[in-house]
Amino acid sequence: MENLYALIDKILPMLSTILGAYITYYVTVSSKKNEAKVNAQIRARDEYWIPCSIAIENLQNKVSELSKNENTLVSFTGEKSCESETTELLKYLQANNRIYFYERTRNILKLLEDTINNYENQINSDISAIIDIFCKQYSSMIESFPMYKINNCIDYAITTKKSLFEEIKTVLLTHRQIIWYGQIAHIVFFMGDPPYSSSFTSDMSYSSEKDIFDIWCEINEYGNSKDSFGLSPEQEIGLEVINFEYEHLANICDILNHEIETKDYQSLYVRIFEILSLLQEEILKNIDEATIL
Q: What is the pTM of this model?
């Protein structure tokens, strides 16, 4: 028994030393883990969360700037849009940035991106459909164009202005009226059986600042002489095309304007800003939790 007591007396100090060392190691490791976690949160807060929150504010401010009229919706891509602000915010979904955000934050940000894409895709799809209707209606109309009949044309190729897409987009978002006259860039009229033996062209361009529709307005509304513009034969045909549009395009305009009036993006648009507000709340909560006073 005395030997057992003696053994215990020797073991207890050793156990005490081992236990003390383990406790010290555990406390040190836990402390370093907590320190690393805090440092990681601080870095994420300063380099990613706060800039992301600022990006949200910048996007909201840009939207307010572009939508001064209550009936105006804003586009997130293209001309006169908040594309740069949107890109700055959505960059936090990239692989090298998203790792610094919590899963819930990433999911909200992805939902925002998807909703914006749905909104823009719907608008772009509607614009393409409207342009398609315009071209089909215009094609039917141009077959009655006197030069088409006189020259026994059997086909034609119509090209719309590059600006037409953005003009329709603006109308869809602002609920304003579009001028459908003068939206054709040029028309090639073909004569003879394929392969066509000959053709002639209506050129609707004039200068970097004006096109044939502008010249037509100056002649018909302000009384300027046609001879003063020095038009080429192709531009003269273009002027005749605008004259023909003025007499026959009204019915097509009614069809197109009615088509535009049926489009509604309000629900998707509102949803975008609901998600944007939710994202800002989530980011600010994470910032507050990572702030040590």
A: 0.82
CB 283 within 8 A of CB 53: yes
Give yes or no for a contact between 220 and 140, defined as CB atoms under 8 angstroms apart: no
**Residues 78 and 131 placed together within one structural domain of the fold:** no
Q: Do residue 40 and residue 137 come from a single domain?
A: no
Q: 111 and 142, same structural domain? A: no
> For 118-157, what is each residue's pLDDT tens digit?
999 999 999 999 999 999 999 999 999 999 999 889 899 9
For 51-97, the pLDDT digits (tens) are 999 999 999 999 999 988 767 899 999 888 999 999 999 999 999 99
Rg over alpha carbons for the chain, rounded to the nearest Å, is: 34
What residues does 2 pair with on adjacent strands?
A: none
Say if residue 91 is in the same domain as residue 178: no
Neighbour count for residue 263 (Cβ, 10 Å): 17
The boundaries of the domain holding residue 21 are 2-121+267-289
Token pair recorded at residue 76: 């997130």
Q: What would the pLDDT profile of 227-264 be if each residue is shown by its tens digit?
A: 888 999 999 999 999 999 999 999 899 999 999 999 99
DSSP letters spanning 16-69:
HHHHHHHHHHHHHHHHHHHHHHHHHHHHHIIIIIHHHHHHHHHHHHHHHHH--S
> Under a CB-based contact definition with an 8 Å cutoff, are residues 125 and 169 in contact?
no
At a CB cut-off of 8 Å and minimum separation 6, what does 85 contact?
A: 55, 58, 59, 62
Q: Based on the domain organization, do 254 and 271 belong to the same domain?
A: no
**In terms of domains, do 168 and 78 share one?**
no
Q: At what angle do helices 83-90 and 50-66 cross, to 10 degrees?
A: 160
